[in-house]
């Protein structure tokens, strides 16, 4: 079979000692920067770019790819341990992962993330190998209209992220959407809500908002209880998964993998939705949705799988079309160009060894990640037994340095403090930050796509239902909304809320 | 004796007063500020220049990206910096657009800076999807004239040089092609590939692979010279619009008041480092352009002329100032 | 305990939403609405902010009618210290350098804990400052000065 021959070619190319070494180096570095909050793969890869000039193209790309998915992976570690999501995708992991950690199940949560990611990575590698060209066509079938409807679906689904009051969740989403609009409007070039501050011209960085409301808010909240919380975790029970837990995560991991693989392909922001969508679905189909947000293992397994699968399939538009789906991919294209390779539709046929080698290296890299991280789980969990009054200053320090590293701006550090206070106040009022953050991500995209779709159709609002994919997505959104507003479902929500109160 | 030789060198330099500052310079690390996203083509050029420049100057040259407000944040920071040669900056063609686009700027694109040297020049490419009826630029302009509003073009965003090139084309050819802004070139290219918009104005390095793979058809390049990467594609001027000449560039600037000796030293080091065939090839490959160094005066004249041109285009196209 | 309103958390949440919505409406009042074929920068924010005001009103009214917990006192001291620590870092990192700024963050933040002891706090500050200088600047090469211009080079 062709695919087998191709994969063999890929593994052959990827498993030379040199390439294996760079693959390992990449995932190691990725894990490191993922664990260091705020320091993202974009900044790291940009700094490492000149070093890669001296490497053969394949080694360079294998290493950069390793940094990327290694960082996705490492980001969930801090999300689980200290409620500090450094990437939009690990925010969802923090919801239930951190609760698990508080209950002494940090080890289980980390192991779940590791195994879920590895499984998803393996499947996504196969997807890449088998279906890259047809999936690239799918990526191109999404225009502004389709993306708009996809974002609307994401928005409706985000209501499910909350486990408290429905109305408050909607309010939080709206605040998030509005905050997301701060900055220069793509369609008109007008600067909105920036108060003529140049630092706000490009909007507020997601990492600042997420770190502020999650991590800083959490620190202040913990300090409020004073002596009561000497350590975050009082007892650390098991480090690994029980047979029963393993059984419980199989289906969520499968669903997350499927969802992540599909959404990851869409270059216009699909990958960002993967972990949210996975979480939403798990909560929706669970017979005990009230456990979500309070340490449900499915709420870690599925988004982590989706996140990792999406990270991998987001290579498809780059490898097959030469279109970067995020800044990291753009960097990798830059690396290729400097190496004298023009990424584009011709790479598969002209450089089969490179193409298949990179795909094969992803599976190898995922294997390295599991081997590297499973033994580390014990170490990370022990970190939690450090007394809290020594731990939280360190968390704060890593956060401020991370925020500073985003764009070298002390203004951003000030914003971090502001969002820390906002996070604390929201928490006092039982307003959940997760819907706010999703709104923040989706706000500018919804507006951009809606306005562009209308501009392209000369103001015809019907385009959203005339395009079949868009119509289907909107129908799905309407269905989801109906489910949320369905009285009987609402009653269970209210019950859950009162138990909570 | 090493020490004696250093001593001798210092004495010799001390005697030659004019060169003194330049010869001692630099004694500590130099910051190379720029206002573009890490990993973008401007950032890549900065890093490609910084590495050999460090080696030549014997002090680290640290690339410091300060993205924001279309590069204005960094430009303001460069203008404000101590003019001692330890803060220099990299700016691109967009630097000359700022004056027309923003109501209030914390700097003047020409007067707040000492120009050091231009580094590289590159074209823009006009391209349509392969199944589009227009085979040449003339045919496209005819379609645009017959059915106003039917030809929409995508660019990397409002107020980018790509966008202004489109508006300039509208003006010179007396057509009304509607502008659709995107967040960066990649999104705009996707949109042409899936047929949402017919035309795109993009930088050569991002668009060339699609053209070579037969997905898009290049109609013209915007400068007065053809580009080696696509030698069969005519210039806009060749396609019938006489004197049309737009290219963009990247160059090094320093804060106003930086000693001339330091400027001269940097200028000559840059000229030497880009002469290295490997560095030259990498920079040219990174943007799809040609190395083109200049004297400080030439660069100043260039930035001033472009600033004037874009202020005019922005006014005539009715692009709102921010 | 007698409460002024029955569900203060919801009432205050609603109030914050209404105020936020009005603030966005006021700041955004000058942005154009545009038309369907070219939506202006004002349309989307105005739509969202109006919705937020409505939702805020609903939350508030519901809060007046339902029973709920009272709000526990705000932890003023930790909040102020964490904010101060963050701002101190922003101020010091460019002037005094990463080492001093890091130590300041740690020390000021540590003051917020009831278990704070000076010797321990100072040791922690020095240790973390050294660690971060090594990891971020020397190992990862971030363009941040370890020792800033204020302290000489």
From TrEMBL, chain A:
Keywords: Membrane, Transmembrane, Transmembrane helix. It comes from the Bacteria. InterPro entries: DUF112_TM (IPR002823). The chain crosses the membrane at residues 20-39, 45-69, 109-132, 138-161, 166-183, 203-220, 328-348, 354-374, 386-404, 471-489. Residues 20-438 form the DUF112 domain. The keyword Transmembrane applies. Signal peptide: none annotated. This is TctA family transporter. It comes from Chelatococcus asaccharovorans.
TrEMBL record, chain B:
Belongs to the UPF0065 (bug) family. This is Tripartite-type tricarboxylate transporter receptor subunit TctC. Pfam families: TctC (PF03401). Coiled coil: none annotated. Keywords: Receptor, Signal. InterPro entries: BUG, Bug_dom1. The keyword Transport does not apply. Residues 1-22 form the signal peptide.
From TrEMBL, chain C:
Coiled coil: none annotated. It holds the Pfam family TctB. It comes from the Bacteria. Residues 13-145 form the DUF1468 domain. InterPro entries: DUF1468. The keyword Ubl conjugation does not apply. Keywords: Membrane, Transmembrane, Transmembrane helix. The chain crosses the membrane at residues 12-31, 43-61, 81-110, 122-144. This is Putative tricarboxylic transport membrane protein. It comes from Chelatococcus asaccharovorans. The lineage of its organism: Bacteria, Pseudomonadati, Pseudomonadota, Alphaproteobacteria, Hyphomicrobiales.
